[in-house]
Write a structure and sequence with these properties.
Elements lengths: L4 E5 L11 H9 L9 E2 L3 E11 L13 E5 L6 E2 L13 E7 L10 E8 L6 E7 L8 E4 L9 E11 L3 E2 L3 E4 L10 E5 L5 E3 L7 E10 L4 H5 L6 E2 L2 E2 L9 E15 L2 E15 L5 E2 L4 E2 L5 E7 L6 E8 L9 E8 L2 E7 L10 E6 L10 E8 L5 E9 L5 E4 L7 E7 L9 E4 L3 E2 L5 E5 L8 E11 L7 E5 L1 E6 L7 E6 L3 E8 L3 E8 L2 E9 L3 E5 L2 E8 L2 E10 L2 H8 L2
């Protein structure tokens, strides 16, 4: 009698907590002819996938080459790669983060991680993420290439002469040029006599090399590259006290580097004067009107190590005659500096908003996964972080980080990546009340050009023939037309997934990361077909607005199969 082993796998199949090589071999030795055993090794929960991309959406190289991401923070010891390893590394710009499913996650017991991304030729970027629930999130790290800047960014370099004990030889100013995609300039002025110190408080002298970037807010790609994202899980007030989550509406910001050889400047005896012209179409979220002279805007600096923003004070917007709107403020130390409105107090620990969803999907069998983002209606700024959930009618989502007492809308979007995301549906406005609830209806949401796709996915170990059938649990990513980056499609649950985000006759690339390996299914057209590829078989059947995808005989890595079968 043929032995059939149906194995339900997480991407953490092999290196499970407490599961040794001998235990796995003993487990497989227990199988007998005719037995069907379901082994649920899905012990890791994937609540977070980090994606690192080139911030320039038209870059020839969309994923930074030589990318490295260091993970730190209070929860570092609790997270693993999805194949169960404590070491974490990006794969095609993606880093899937797994955590023990038995570990509770809440606002009082969050997963707190900091990601520091580096790549040759790119500015280093540090991002902090605090996970307070089990909803999946896929934040994007936008890295800036100095030789391939996105629209709306200026780069200036120069020399600042500093004499021993005398400081800056004479006042010197560097101003950014004007371009059609960024008609606002910015300037840095070093006053004569200013002393410059490194991070250890030691003086720097000689011809210091200055590099600084000025970011405006006219281009979506520029705003998407706001350091750490426009939602900060934590920030500090001007007196150093914690502020909780902050939703930023940026007007502009600087990244500044000043160094002597390998030694970097950190502080000054006298503040460096920064002048920043502002886009007059910037909305002041406190008034609901475009900014004008006399408005005040908060000034923030960001600690490179902790990735925490600190409020440094307020700058008053000025204008001279018909000249541009601008602000001037002092820079006392080097880091990212931003002029950005805050959308006010956010609903954080102990006072979330419960969002009740009315959807057109009555049961789990009908409901696809959807990406939901929340938008401040006045500023147009996306707030908190997008959520991914299976939108069954009556779903209740406990959402932290939304700004309090603001008029918001919920949007169904196609991607976590804002540069590739399309808004599919916008709900009616609702008022955000901390420790309250809101009703969001998506029942009017229709996708006339898409299909409901049910897919089934099974894999085999070539050495075992038909005796072993593997039905994995993993995330499925895909590339949409016109976007060079993978985005999340859905979740394979016991070899099956459901989605309504594929378009008839459109061609896609699909990717699954499983046990540390990448499985690609390229140039798949949504049309009735049968494909026999070297590494898998695919059958697609279309019936009206429904499509069936059957992926079979996906060949797994021999080393993985050897460990799996105890060979």
């Amino acid at each position: 009698m043929q032995r059939l082993l149906t194995t339900i796998l997480a991407a953490a199949f092999l290196t499970l907590t407490g599961c040794t090589e001998m235990k796995r071999e003993d487990l497989f030795n227990k199988y007998t002819d005719g037995a069907q055993l379901i082994v649920n090794t899905d012990v890791l929960r994937n609540v977070l996938t980090i994606q690192a991309i080139n911030a320039n959406p038209i870059a020839e190289m969309p994923i930074p080459q030589g990318l490295q991401i260091e993970v730190s923070g209070p929860s570092r010891a609790e997270v693993f790669s999805m194949d169960g390893k404590s070491s974490l590394a990006p794969f095609d710009g993606l880093m899937e983060i797994g955590i023990d499913k038995t570990r509770p996650i809440s606002s009082s017991n969050p997963v707190d991680l900091t990601f520091s991304a580096t790549a040759p030729g790119f500015l280093p970027a540090t991002y902090r993420f605090i996970v307070t629930d089990t909803f999946f999130s896929m934040p994007t790290l936008h890295l800036i290439a100095l030789d391939d800047l996105p629209a709306g960014v200026d780069f200036v370099e120069g020399t600042v002469p500093v004499e021993p004990e005398l400081g800056v030889f004479s006042p010197i100013t560097y101003t950014t040029p004007l371009f059609s995609d960024k008609p606002e300039s910015a300037a840095l002025t070093f006053q004569g006599g200013t002393l410059v110190y490194d991070e250890n408080g030691q003086p720097l002298t000689g011809d210091l090399q200055l590099e600084y970037l000025h970011f405006g807010n006219r281009e979506a790609a520029t705003v998407a590259a706001f350091p750490g994202g426009t939602f900060a899980a934590a920030a500090l007030a001007a007196d150093g006290s914690p502020m909780g989550p902050v939703n930023f509406a940026p007007a502009g910001w600087f990244n500044i580097s000043l160094k002597a050889g390998a030694r970097h400047a950190k502080s000054f005896s006298e503040p460096v004067e920064a002048t920043m012209e502002l886009n007059p179409n910037t909305i002041n979220p406190n008034t609901g009107e475009p900014i004008r002279a006399g408005d005040q805007i908060p000034i923030w600096s960001r600690d490179e190590g902790s990735a925490a923003w600190s409020m440094e004070g307020l700058a008053t917007i000025t204008s001279f005659g018909e000249g541009p709107l601008s602000i001037t403020f002092g820079i006392s130390h080097l880091s990212d500096w931003a002029a950005a409105f805050s959308l006010g107090e956010s609903c954080s620990t102990g006072a979330p908003i419960v969002v009740n969803f009315e959807t057109p999907y009555p049961t789990l069998l009908d409901a696809p996964y959807s990406i939901i983002q929340f938008v401040d209606q006045i500023s147009g700024q996306v707030v908190a972080r997008p959520q991914w959930a299976r939108m069954v009618d009556g779903t209740k989502a406990v959402v932290y980080g939304l700004p309090a007492n603001r008029v918001l809308t919920a949007q169904v979007v196609t991607s976590f990546n804002p540069l590739c995301s399309e808004v599919l549906y916008t709900s009616a406005p609702f008022l955000s009340v901390c420790n309250g609830s809101a009703l969001v209806s998506t029942r009017a949401y229709t996708q006339p050009n898409t299909l409901t796709v049910e897919a089934r996915f099974s894999a085999v170990c070539p050495s075992a023939g038909d005796e072993v059938l593997i039905r994995p649990e993993a995330l499925v990513y895909y590339k949409e037309t016109g976007c060079p980056h993978l985005t999340l499609l859905t979740y394979i649950n016991r070899g099956r997934f459901l989605t309504d985000r594929l378009v008839r006759n459109q061609t896609y690339d699909f990717t699954v990361y499983f046990n540390g390996e990448r499985y690609e299914f390229s140039d798949i057209t949504v049309a009735t077909t049968e494909l026999d590829i070297d590494d898998y078989t695919l059958r697609i059947d279309l019936d009206g607005d429904f499509a069936s995808f059957i992926f079979e005989n996906v060949k797994l890595d021999p080393e993985f199969c050897g460990l799996l079968l105890g060979e």
